[in-house]
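In practice, a research group might receive sequence data for several interacting partners and want a quick structural hypothesis before committing to experiments. The following worked case mirrors that situation: the sequences arrive first, and a predicted assembly follows.
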Amino acid sequence: MRTVDPLHVQLLRLLRDEGAVSRAELGDRLRMPRPRLLAELQRLVGLGYVAEAGLAASRGGRRSTLVELSPRLRFAAVDLGASSIDVEVVNGRLEPVAAYAESADIRSGPKVTLQRVNELLHKARADGAYERLDAVGVGVPGPVSFRDGVPVSPPIMPGWDRFPVRELLTREHGCPAVVDNDVNIMAIGERHGGVAHSVDNFLLIKIGTGIGCGIYLNGEVYRGTDGCAGDIGHIQVDPNGPMCSCGNPGCLEAVFSGAALARDATTAARAGVSPALAERLTARGVVTALDVAQGAVEGDLTCIQLIRDGGRRLGSVLAGLVSFTNPSMIVIGGGLAQLGHILLAEIRSVVYRRSLPLATGNLPVVLSELGPRAGVAGAAVLASDLAFGEAS
Amino acid sequence: MRTVDPLHVQLLRLLRDEGAVSRAELGDRLRMPRPRLLAELQRLVGLGYVAEAGLAASRGGRRSTLVELSPRLRFAAVDLGASSIDVEVVNGRLEPVAAYAESADIRSGPKVTLQRVNELLHKARADGAYERLDAVGVGVPGPVSFRDGVPVSPPIMPGWDRFPVRELLTREHGCPAVVDNDVNIMAIGERHGGVAHSVDNFLLIKIGTGIGCGIYLNGEVYRGTDGCAGDIGHIQVDPNGPMCSCGNPGCLEAVFSGAALARDATTAARAGVSPALAERLTARGVVTALDVAQGAVEGDLTCIQLIRDGGRRLGSVLAGLVSFTNPSMIVIGGGLAQLGHILLAEIRSVVYRRSLPLATGNLPVVLSELGPRAGVAGAAVLASDLAFGEAS
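A structural hypothesis for the assembly, expressed as tokens:
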């Protein structure tokens, strides 16, 4: 691996996050002497990363030249879920210039899934979204060896174990690629442009089909020894609870998750205790976790109780993790974040009651700000960081 | 705060950890050109940090001069427990030149406790252990603001909240001081010279009167936003369990710790179910956690069962933390590490059964190597790092 000049990356990140900046201000902000800055900029213009953008407003003397990231820069951001593909092509400032979202089953395997990703990206090119990509960032719903760019023993991704995801994308698009866990890219997204902006220690809880946790500690994503840190879905919350797909009883995910909630909602609808759910089951033959959210908004007591029970279970796990990590914030994201305030209220209540007062004195428990875009937003950040490092 | 030259600190650490090294080897190891190295060494000799130590064996050409840390260097390492004071004075290589250990009640407050620490250190000086101290490192049994050098809302340390521990020691001994949590200094000790040597991600569980956890992530101690990370004693393990001193029912510490074990052992002795414990209660009027350890060694079934039950409770919490942090090692330390193999076997059994196979594929669960010295050993490392930083 090449050594990366940190000042270099800093310069490109500054232009990414703030847009056009005058040379004079860049020199001040990076504490870089003018001759070195000009040489640096010239090199980056030559590499196609930076472009001039007219003159800045006067600061009293001669007007300084504005520079910005080249308008040609393009990154691809891919968020693979258990049952979805989200793809965005973004410009240097990470603004989407093309976006695609569709249903897909991760269990159809890496070849089928990545072929579809490639098709969507080629379509974006045909539609004029880019001429060439500078980097690709991908999130997958399972543990990842970040160093090797491959999934590692992902429980819900048959056929993906050690599949060379990074290599395949690099070859297909002729640019560097980076692979990470789906929850990590959400956390990166929220920290870069969402509710956790500039927060150094926080946990992002994704509640979707399953439950996972992205971990930011000391300003960095923490991935663990094998890349599977944050796998909180299989923490036991009830030794007498329902059997989990992992073979143990009462895992958090077996008790509260999209799948668990759909199961409990179906039971409630059949038992006739919930008019809201029974109506939906009759109409569509199936009820989902989102029906529970909708039922709760309409005031259905069973739906409200299901969400409260789930929030209590999740809250008890989070209380332990708060005592353990002493974070500055907890962010709730993923599809079931739509369960909204009832869920948040219950989580807060358990966490504040059960953790050390010192650790919860000033601990916001908040909803994701970027919602369904959190994943692709983070994948775009990763892709741009990778490209900026390579440009050094 | 002054900026610290990392190369400087690296040089001093190398001499601390490896002893006398030739100038030629130093230059190679630090990739430092000879003129700069010589200037650097001369400065450090002038500051009294480094001394010459004769000539190295020939590497083929001219023999290179050996350098080592000045034999005059002295650090004080202090480990304050709930009921004990351990003090060591160590030389530059962190070898003890004086050591004191005695019972003390942390609840007697900071003035009484720190006065006793100062008396012990002055006694060490009178005994010829040092002329002056270069830094003091202290661990206390509660949350610490590492930046401010003060305990913060420590639950079992009345009178210590925000007491200026660092300032008082600095003034008394005329050298810089550093304050950390007792479990953190144990983790630092085990990583520097114990079982976790060079392990980047590990958890150190201290089982003493209470239970706490030291956290090493990515090669650094992780302390959390308010300095109270690792407070796992108040994670709930049994909603119907005994009331904890914190006011919540069924905390880990209320179910398994030195105090909880003494309580359960007393009950068992009185109920007549344990001959080993009953005998000790009759003989001394009181039974402790160590009596349970001794009883287990003698084959007393109740004692073995008490340890197994505790190990299962602790194991269930650790299984969750393993899923969350995906560490490379778990180290069990503190006074109750003497419960030994029965405890380890039970913890391993629960952790391996309940965590992701990926996270436990190669996860040693081992006993502390430094035993009761782990704390002072880590405090000495902290003190030397602080002094080396100041020397830059």
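Before designing any experiment, note the following. Chain B has a mean pLDDT of 92. Residues 74-190+373-390 of chain B form a domain with the Nucleotidyltransferase; domain 5 fold (CATH 3.30.420.40).
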